[in-house]
Each structure stands twice: as structure tokens, then as C-alpha cells.
Specification:
The chain is mostly helical and 207 residues long. The protein has one domain. 80% of the residues lie in helices and 0% in strands. Helix 2 crosses helix 8. The radius of gyration is 18 Å and the shape is globular. About 2% of the residues have low confidence. It is a multi-pass membrane protein. This is LysE family translocator. Keywords: Cell membrane, Membrane, Transmembrane, Transmembrane helix. It is found in: Cell membrane.
Amino acid sequence: MDLHSMLTFALAFLVFAASPGPDNVTIMARTLSHGPASGLAYGLGTVTGILIYLTLAFFGLSVLAQDMGWLMELLRYGGAVYLIWMGVRLWMAKPVLPQMVPMERRGSLFPVYLTGFALNLGNPKMPLFYLALLPNFVPASFNVSALIDIIGIILAVETAVIGGHIFLSERARRVLKTPRSVALINRTTGGFLGAAGLAILASGRGN
């Protein structure tokens, strides 16, 4: 890829990655409620899904991924239900100040990672995104060198986007000084998580 194509693709992907949606809302909600490590775990899950779809696109299998409807539906609905469950738990949680939560009570990060991975991999728009975008920015001979360039761009953009969301959420988290403020943020983030899960379920019915 030449420099112009790389910069144009980076800008297009930045708009795609930074646009409001369930992933970015969940990264911020997990950071606010459980700390930056939890937000990062979810973000890494989404990036893993993105890279898998990119690899499928590279080998010309994006259309095949779209045909695996039952698997995509299972991943999307499973992730959506888990988001709703996390939202309900947060809404009902006791208002414990962040600095008072012991590390052993913050839960495993692996299920959080898997949720981000499943929701991203179950997103039917991802293969369409790559099928529409890649032909406009990569050479006709889409070789391994071009794939490496695109992976580097995606990782750089996602690092900036996810890092920015985590940074802003952690700054907000540090001002939580009273149980009342924690309860408010728990219910706010819980509501966002539940709404994100419901939105995913609703969009699935419309397809």
C-alpha cells in the first residue's frame, strides 16, 4: 500500500472505530464499574474479532462467514444476553467506592474478553464493512505485505480509540468519592449496558 492509501484507510477506519456503538459504550461502562483492566479486556476481545474478519477477507472468505448464519446469530445473541446480565448486576449492585473493591472481587477478565470477541464476531456488518472498504484502499494484488500494513493501521487506530475511552472513563471514575455517586454511575452504566444488549437483540430481529 502506498502512503496515501494507508492514510485514507486509517481515516476511514478511525471514523468506523470511534463512532458511538455498543462496543465503545461497554468499554467505558466496564472501566467505570470495574477499572481500566476490565475495559481493556473487552476492547482486546473486539480487536480479536476485527482481526479475524480481516484475515477472512484476505483469504476471500468474508462471503463464507456471512453464510454461517447460525453461528453468527449464536455469538451475537449470547453476547447481547451477557451485556444485559451485566447491566442488571450493575443496576442492583451495592454502591462500593472503587478504591474499596478488593482485586479478588473484581472477577475474571477472560469472560469480559470473550464477550467483546463474541459480539464483534457475531456482527453481520463486519464482513460487509471489509468487502466494501478493502477494494477501495488496497492494490489489486492483495498480498501479505498489504495485510501487514492494514493490521498495523487497525492496531494503531484501535489503540488510540480504546485507550482514549479508557482514559476518559478512568478520569471520571476517580471523582467518585461518595456511595451516592457510585450508585448513580452504577445505574447509569448498567442502564447503558442493558440498552446496548437490547439494541443488539432488536437489530437481530430486524434483519
